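Design job #97: recover the sequence.
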């Protein structure tokens, strides 16, 4: 324990005392700065983008005449409309002066923060040209940039970039839906073949053997089936009526077919509940995996859930693990999940889809090897395990510092990416180039892809680029946690967070959880984003039902009395790269702790007054 504390002290001392590294100074060229320090240079960039755009439009088709003349511009109606537009523009600019200032290091609320200059410029360029990445007919350059950006993300995550396939989405929720849709498509395809073979006495696959047969077995039997001219449609849950197919399965396999299940950890994003509902599986098909005492997916419970599914003949549509939970930034043991699924494949011939929801934490794969002392070896192994998954979700609009909305879905195997064949009569789709036949969303902006491409090329998805930025954010978390720990013993700091999120509650020894929640929520309200405060935070509630092992151990540190179904935390997402900057007039970590202590005293006075009034 002593050596661990010594290591932490060394990191804190390094954060506090060492002057800014020249490599960190170089990273400042990628952000406007809290005080718009790079404004002059950025103004030149924006002007250049618009000048190039104007010149391109003017030079294309020089034989075409001008449709807006000088005389038009001097017309009274034209001038009136122009002035009206300018007034509304000024109005909307003024209104946005009251928007939540998430660019400042004082904003440590949600997973939206300062956006990078390459991302802004890429976004502007894409908006001016407005390509629709549904197909090459509507986007010649945009879809090229998207494919290149997906290659960069895939390589960062550890996939073989040229074997993988993916596309950009409007966010992590849709990307998770994409993973669920493909997992169901593969399972349905294998199950249909197994049912056909069983029905025609070629071989006697069980329901579970059929649903998890693997591509080698599938290809072997499909080769024979094609020679015989067999058709799987009437056995396919997606291609035919699923109710009729379920009844057919019951006759073929001599057991009731109750549908597939999705195994999702209790720390999941809420989009997984939506995914199961959208696929029409029913809430019963959502099987939560219990969490351990660190809030991570329990391997023991995963094994138990899979065994239960095998015993009940419930095909496993997918297993999901999380790299960076929304609440606390926790990283599941992704490598151990991959190990167990590999064991099932090798020992029992069961191939189960593994999706990693790395919407938040995927960019931590860029951390420099020599700086990974700021995260545990367990997290390192987990991040390295992503490359063994079937598919992954990642959100550039979070730790990629890209504007909303920009998510991405990537499959390790291009064969598993191409899951459906859909045509639109008014669009010409080119196979292997256009993603429109494979995406849940139809029309898709290229802005997220272009922003990600430009950040990837400029900043770098490596240890000298994003990795160095994210290392700073983890050091921000370490420093803030240390200061909170020293500030007041009633500040109970979460010990489960793996990355750059700080969670804590305010609890007195032996008090009921409901009292802790009341106090913590009042302090959160004191930082309310309804108006500009000295700092901005967020809150999260961990349900006892999902986080029982963790909450039981955590709450025992102050001998809490459990009288609530949840525990409320103040949540600080340490994304801003300038939170622990060594220049400027403000030590943001110290300032936040001072502000928190003031609000704690004010809140305690209010609680005591409320208690007195109730008597």
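Job complete. Output follows.
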């Amino acid at each position: 324990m002593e050596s661990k504390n010594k290591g932490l002290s060394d990191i804190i001392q390094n954060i506090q005392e060492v002057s800014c590294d020249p490599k960190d100074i170089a990273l400042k060229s990628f952000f406007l700065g809290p005080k718009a320090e790079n404004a002059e240079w950025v103004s030149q960039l924006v002007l250049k983008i618009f000048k190039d755009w104007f010149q391109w439009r003017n030079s294309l088709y020089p034989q075409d005449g001008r449709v807006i003349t000088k005389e038009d511009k001097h017309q009274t109606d034209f001038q009136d409309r122009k002035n009206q537009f300018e007034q509304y523009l000024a109005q909307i600019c003024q209104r946005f002066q009251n928007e939540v200032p998430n660019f400042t290091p004082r904003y440590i609320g949600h997973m939206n923060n300062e956006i990078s200059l390459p991302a802004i410029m890429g976004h502007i360029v894409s908006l001016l040209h407005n390509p629709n990445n549904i197909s090459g007919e509507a986007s010649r350059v945009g879809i090229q940039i998207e494919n290149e950006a997906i290659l960069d993300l895939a390589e960062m995550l550890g996939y073989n970039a040229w074997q993988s396939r993916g596309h950009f989405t409007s966010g992590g929720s849709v990307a998770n839906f994409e993973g669920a849709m493909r997992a169901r498509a593969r399972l349905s395809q294998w199950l249909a073949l197994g049912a056909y073979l069983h029905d025609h006495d070629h071989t006697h696959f069980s329901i579970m053997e059929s649903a998890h047969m693997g591509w080698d077995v599938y290809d072997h039997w499909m080769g024979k089936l094609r020679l015989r001219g067999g058709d799987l449609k009437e056995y396919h849950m997606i291609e035919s009526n699923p109710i009729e197919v379920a009844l057919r399965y019951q006759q073929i396999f001599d057991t009731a077919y109750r549908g597939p299940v999705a195994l999702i950890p209790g720390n999941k994003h809420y989009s997984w509940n939506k995914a199961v509902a959208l696929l029409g599986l029913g809430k019963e098909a959502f099987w939560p995996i219990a969490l351990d005492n660190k809030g991570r997916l329990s391997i023991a419970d995963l094994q138990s859930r899979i065994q239960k599914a095998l015993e009940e003949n419930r095909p496993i549509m997918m297993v999901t693990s999380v790299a960076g939970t929304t609440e606390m930034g926790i990283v599941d043991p992704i490598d151990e999940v991959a190990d167990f699924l590999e064991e099932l494949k090798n020992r029992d011939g069961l191939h189960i889809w593994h999706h990693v929801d790395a919407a938040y934490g995927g960019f931590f794969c860029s951390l420099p090897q020599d700086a990974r002392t700021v995260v545990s070896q367990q997290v390192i192994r987990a991040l390295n395990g992503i490359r063994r998954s079937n598919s992954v979700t990642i959100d550039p609009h979070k730790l990629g510092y890209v504007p909303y909305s920009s998510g991405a879905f990537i499959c390790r195997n291009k064969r598993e990416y191409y899951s459906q064949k859909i045509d639109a009569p008014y669009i010409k789709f080119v196979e292997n180039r256009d993603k429109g036949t494979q995406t849940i969303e139809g029309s898709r902006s290229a802005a997220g892809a272009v922003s990600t491409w430009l950040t990837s090329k400029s900043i770098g998805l490596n240890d000298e680029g994003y990795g160095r930025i994210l290392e700073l954010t983890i050091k921000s978390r370490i420093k803030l946690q240390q200061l909170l720990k020293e500030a007041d013993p009633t500040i109970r700091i979460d010990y489960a967070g793996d990355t750059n999120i700080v969670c804590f509650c305010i609890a007195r020894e032996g008090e009921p959880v409901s009292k802790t929640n009341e106090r913590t929520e009042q302090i959160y309200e004191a930082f309310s984003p309804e108006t500009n405060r000295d700092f901005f935070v967020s809150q999260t509630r961990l349900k006892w039902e999902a986080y029982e092992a963790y909450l039981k151990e955590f709450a025992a540190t102050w001998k809490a009395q459990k009288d609530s179904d949840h525990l409320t935390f103040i949540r600080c997402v340490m994304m801003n790269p300038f939170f622990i900057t060594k220049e400027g007039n403000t030590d943001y970590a110290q300032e936040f702790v001072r502000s928190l202590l003031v609000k704690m005293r004010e809140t305690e006075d209010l609680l005591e007054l409320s208690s007195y009034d109730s008597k």
